[in-house]
Amino acid sequence: MLKSLNIRVLVIGLLCTSPAYVKTLEYYTEKPSYIESCRINEPDFTNCSTRSIQGFLNAVIEASYIESCRINEPDFTNCSTRSIQGFLNAVIEGIPEIEESFGPIDPMKQDQLSFKQENSDIVSISANITNLVIRGFGKMVLKESKVSKKDFSWQDHIYIPKMRIDGNYKMLGRVLIIPLHGSGTLFIEIDELNIFMNATTRIYEKGGYTFFSVIAVSVKLDVGRVWTYMDNLFNGHSKDVERSTNEFFNENWREFYEALHPLIVETVERTLLDLLKKMFNLMPANFFVEDIPNSLALYGLKTRLIV
């Protein structure tokens, strides 16, 4: 009910307020493609205005995939899980405002990751991965989404049937007793990836609504199986040794996963943080949690309000 009321208020605000007020809605700093700009002194203004408002209404109606929940209700966690999954499904299918800032969800791209793993008897490795292409987030399933009543942080369980990372690597170190020195292309493929995510949030006001600001994300991972292949190992000196080494890593995948663990964790954390920031900068928190307090009520002090 509250979400429907908020949508009606938002529509009325856009129709009845001055252009200066509309500009203050920072979550629409650029005109969405479904809104047609019209000039009131043009002869066809009424038809143009009708098309424009209908386009906006169509977009709002599509937001019915978000289920409004109340945090003090017994079934809140189940309701919240359904609601966030609905939003994720819409993002995966494509929401223009998110695609413009984030890019496609599947596959998605990252520029570079660097990591070191030197605190283990099994692994001592330094690597730099560039031109990453990540596949699999388009199939993610939200198993559970818990929201803290104290600070509105999140604890989520996300499942991805298969995630694959492709990129260009430079690596120096050792895994088990095998020295590694090379550069080339690699892939890492993970079956049955379970992501246990903690997200730190702050709430703030914008345009008369309450929003989530996602500040930090940390994850723990549980994997079913890991496959990998690195070409040009040992800088291409022996293709037979390269092939047998990759076979050894796949046979002893748990040990090799420990070497890759910092890379995989950072990839997942960076991806989720960027995605969640953009998702929840677009859609008010009130739409998901009807009884969410404003920042003044939650934090007990006056925070910067964006209106």
TrEMBL record:
Report the leader peptide range: 1-24
**Family annotation (Pfam families):** JHBP
Record keyword Repressor present: no
Q: Give the InterPro entries listed for this entry.
A: Haemolymph_juvenile_hormone-bd, To_sf
Query: Which terms are listed as keywords in the entry?
Result: Biological rhythms, Signal
* GO CC annotation, single: extracellular space
> Which GO terms of type biological process are on file?
circadian rhythm
Q: Which Gene3D superfamilies match?
A: Haemolymph juvenile hormone binding protein
SMART domains found in the cross-reference section: JHBP
Family, according to the entry, reads as follows: Belongs to the TO family.
Full protein name: GH18635
Native organism: Drosophila grimshawi (Hawaiian fruit fly)
